Amino acid sequence: MANLLNTTLKHCYKPLFIGLIFLFSGAQQQQSAQWGFAGHQRINEFAVYLLPLELQHFFITHQHELIAQAVAPDQRRYIQEAEACRHYIDLDFYYKRGENPFWNLPQNWQAAKDCHAEDTLLAHGIVPWHVVNMKYRLQKAFEQKNLALILKNAAEIGHYIADAHVPLHTTQNYNGQLTNQYGIHGLWESRLVELEANNYNYWIGKATYLKSVQQTIWQAVAASHAALDSVFLFEKLCSAQIKEAEKYSFEQRGSVMTKVYSQKFCQAYHSKLNGMVERRMRAAILMVSSVWYTAWVDAGQPDMRQFNENDPLKIEAQEKDSLPVMLNRWKQRSCH
Ligand SMILES: [Zn+2]
Asked: Is residue 336 part of a domain?
């Protein structure tokens, strides 16, 4: 359990600051969060538009809740010890360099527990197994036609899927602390997103039915892990090319002057990554939408129009944003 506690703490970030105030230093980086608030919210927001019409109207109606709750799992990490391990997996704990990362790591949770002690699995993160668990929770909520649980589970599975698409969520060196690259976590998933995500292409296609959510989430984790060498290498190259004094700058955040990675450094790093952040974000959006759709199909495709009458949540949402207004906003954001 000591291991579990240490690992839980080491992966513990304070979401309220979300890579805005604490973007760079080792100790400070501990307080950043996955994808940043903005990244998580954007992923849930755009996943709605990939859904088929039978589902899309319902999800657009409740888009406010899906966006607002996108960061709830990070907020829970400080009051629930069991929460932290759901956001990552230290794949490199399970293999040596040159070996297949997955030869010793069953995708099925029970099989994994037969292979490794449960404490070990929890200590090194369970995000792919938890996504599968969350998919069944969402499916159950659809079966029960429980509006609150549908929204909660849909929003939160979006968070965990998004985390699984971040390369630095698949390694013990999650913040570059083992390679003298402190701060790389917030740099990759918060600072670059903050500076660049408005320029990404969000025409992604349509949600598809997933024959195996388990297989898809493990493929996502594998793709994230495969990108790690580039994540670390290019940061090293940029750090070697850009003087320390130009690597960081100060920006006003509210009433606080905050040290951040400079725009010059971020542009150089983002350019070397050659679209990686955008590709991972697009893949996350597609998978979130596809898992929502799959859970609904597996629940027997309940008619979502039943939620649309006399629904106070819907009425409130409609007062804030009508469907045409939201679609128009989406078009404006997506046309690049
Ligand atoms: Zn997270």
From this structure: no
**Domain count for the chain:** 1
* Per-residue pLDDT tens over the stretch 303-327: 998 876 545 554 455 445 444 445 4
**Residues sharing a CB contact under 8 Å with residue 135, sequence separation 6 or more, in sequence order:** 157, 213, 291, 294, 295
In a domain, 267, yes or no: yes
Rounded to the nearest whole angstrom, what is the distance from the C-alpha of residue 72 to the centroid of ligand 1? Answer: 9
What does the pLDDT look like over 86-107, one tens digit per residue? 999 999 999 998 899 898 899 9
In angstroms, what is the span from residue 160 Cα to ligand 1's centroid? Answer: 6
- Distance between Cα 8 and ligand 1 center (Å): 12
Domain membership flag for residue 334: no
What is the 243 CA–ligand 1 centroid distance (Å)? 32
Q: Which domain holds residue 134?
A: 2-328
pLDDT greater than 70 at residue 17: no
- CA–CA distance, 34 with 19 (Å, rounded to integer): 9
- CATH at 154: 1.10.575.10
Residue 145 CA to residue 60 CA, distance in Å, equals: 17
Q: Determine the Cα–Cα distance for residues 314 and 325; give it in Å rounded to an integer.
A: 15
Instruction: Determine the distance separating the centroid of ligand 1 and the alpha carbon of 55, expressed in angstroms.
Output: 26
Q: Is residue 67 part of a domain?
A: yes
